[in-house]
Amino acid sequence: MQKPSIPKGTRDFTPQEMANRNYIFDTIKDVFRLYGFQQIETPAMENLSTLMGKYGEEGDKLLFKILNSGDFLSGLTEEELNGRNSIKLTNKISEKGLRYDLTVPFARFVVQHQNEISFPFKRYQIQPVWRADRPQRGRYREFYQCDVDVVGSDSLLNELELIQIVDEIYRRLKINVVVKINNRKILSGIAEIIGESEKITDITVAIDKMDKIGLGKVNEEIASKGISEEAIAKLQPILKLSGTNSEKLEQLKTVLADSEIGLKGVAELETIFGLCETLKVQTKIELDLTLARGLNYYTGAIFEVKALDVEMGSITGGGRYDNLTGVFGMEGVSGVGISFGADRIYDVLNQLKLYPETSMEQTKVLFVSFGEKELMYSLPWVNSLRLKGINTEIYPEAAKMKKQMGYADNKKIPFVAIVGETEMNEGKVMLKNMKTGEQGLASLDEIIDRIG
Q1: What are phi and psi of 396, to 5 degrees?
Q2: How far is CA 142 from CA 21, 147, 149, 381, 404, in A?
Q3: What are phi and psi of 149, to 5 degrees?
Q4: What are phi and psi of 336, to 5 degrees?
């Protein structure tokens, strides 16, 4: 019989792994709430009309489509079937898809519920997303995103708060990171200056790969999009800018002197850097002009966060978008948000072994017993401890002592309460510390004091 398996790019998580994952989610949620963000959820599947065309051509290909219910081929002609045009066929046999990210469903949510929410609307969302990508290390087909966004405000204070949130979350998780920052307006200014405004998307998609493929290959990709050699030559000094953040911004002011939009981007970044300095944000923040984030909807600041102590792609990313709700007919709503890649953070914490020793979810004490009478004696104790918020288990049958102790060991339960004739006569239990091996008779209050 064939052994069951799961699709490539997906994972099962054991109880210990889930405890570790919940440590990440709980840390992230606590910080989001600290800054006044509220939680929402949206369905796993959206109408394809909501998703298609929002992520560029690449993104559309990576959407998981869901076949229509029932006989999905019934509406097709022989001719359409034989034509084997997968795009046309998909449009007829699939109306829904799994969400690719949380930002587009959020935009749909804002438009749909605009009369019920107060602006600026600060929301966070922690849910899985799906991408029909090629699975590789750090890249999965099903993974969780933890998004935090503010919509309905143009203020750059929102960008500052997002950087502060990044700073606080990674400080709590003890991961050393660098925040890379750029501005889409600067990229538009660069495209304008080199005379290729129309090709802004091609240029940004290519330079966003600088880290992965290097300058030579980036130039080849730009050339393949029909961009002139002269424009590519003008681009080189810009891609090689060096120095501190303020030195880079000064150089950009000169380079972009003739571009109004480019200078606006420089001014925005100056404000953000100034705010971070005033509030003494500890995390290193670096202006990186090769940061473009291939997604089409960013219009202002763009962020990416990288872990410094491991080889891993970005673990957080996002930016400002001025017109995302516009695609759903609601113009003029500016938003800014970032997304924490929970699965990549999980991999980083695994590599660096940064999880706390004990987990909130762990059982603190196990009652072991030798018979029916002992079980009945233990149950009220178990109940009282649970009422005090102490995670407590009782071994459900009178098995051999070795088996019950083995169970406690396997689950890393720190204390075991042993109940036998002597303990019952004294109205106590024998409490054993599994780490030190020490044991002694204890009353209910003494257990609560030691473990609670």
Answers
A1: -75, -10
A2: 15, 16, 22, 43, 37
A3: -140, 150
A4: -145, 140
Interatomic CA distance for residues 325 and 267, integer angstroms: 25
Amino acid at 163: I
Kindly state the helix (H) or strand (E) to which residue 162 belongs, with its residue range.
helix 157-173
Three-state DSSP class for residue 367: strand
Query: Whats the size of the chain, residue-wise?
Result: 452
Residue 332 CB coordination number (10 Å) = 10
CB atoms within 10 A of CB 405: 18
CA atoms within 13 A on the CB side of 65: 18
- In this predicted model, what pLDDT tens digit does every residue of 246-278 receive, in sequence order? 999 999 999 899 999 999 999 999 999 999 999
The distance between the two most distant Cα atoms of the chain, rounded to a whole number of Å, is 94
pLDDT tens figures, 26-40: 999 999 999 999 999
User: Looking up tokens 């649970």, which residue turns up?
Assistant: 386
DSSP for 50-84 reads: HHTTSSHHHHHHTPPEEPPSS-TTTT--HHHHHHT
At position 283, the amino acid (one-letter code) is T
- Does the bond joining 120 to the residue before it have cis omega, within 30 degrees of 0? yes
Instruction: Give the three-state DSSP class for 302.
Output: strand
Amino acid at 348: V
CA torsion 282-287-293-296 (nearest 10°) is 110
For the chain, which domains are there? 15-63+100-352 (3.30.930.10), 365-451 (3.40.50.800)
